[in-house]
Amino acid sequence: MKWPMVCLLISLSLAGVFAHGEVYKWVDAQGRVHYGDKPPASAKAEDISDKITINSFQGTEVTANEFFDAVEETRAEEARNRPKRVVMYSTVWCGVCKKAKRYFQENRIPFKEYDVEKSAKGKKDYAQMQGRGVPIILVGKTRMNGFSAQRFEQMYRGPQ
Questions:
Q1: Are 49 and 20 spatial neighbours (Cβ–Cβ below 8 Å)?
Q2: Is 5 part of any domain?
Q3: 36 and 53 inside one domain
């Protein structure tokens, strides 16, 4: 390894040792309490960095890492449970399209529908997808040609 690379690695590893977020508390001339990462020159500020804890909803203290891990897990769980976007490319005369539409409505599944014969967007998208029949149903980025309630449920909700 070359000497400049070694120096860079050492300086980067030491940077974390000296990084420390500080939080200050001070009272202004009107008696209002302020918090910030830089103390004002005009007021006496107290460093309260070591007094800060993050409280959970259960009232127990957690570390910042535990807090952010919990937030990340909550976001991941919400993403898994979020309904996927459903788009159907259809025609008015297609019986299978009507069956799929009825299924979505009865099961309260929100969907966007484009007629591949009447809608400019429907025609354009259908051509780009090289459609050969209807309906074409997109669940997120997954495509289904035709319609089967069982296949749709696997795509929409995942394996049970």
A1: yes
A2: no
A3: yes
| 64-91 residue pLDDT tens | 777 788 888 888 888 777 778 999 999 9
How does pLDDT run across 15-63, given as a tens digit for each residue? Answer: 444 445 678 888 887 888 888 888 888 778 888 767 766 655 666 676 7
What letter does residue 50 receive in the DSSP assignment?
Answer: G
CATH of residue 96: 3.40.30.10
DSSP track, 90-116: E-TT-HHHHHHHHHHHHTT---EEEET
Q: What domain range includes position 125?
A: 86-157
d(Cα 46, Cα 93) in Å, to the nearest integer?
74
Tokens of 148: 């089967």
Of 128, 131, 127, 151, whose CA–CA distance to 139 is shortest?
A: 151
Please count the structural domains in the chain: 2
Q: Which run of H or of E encompasses 40? A: none
97 and 38 both lie in a single domain:
no
pTM, to two decimals: 0.53
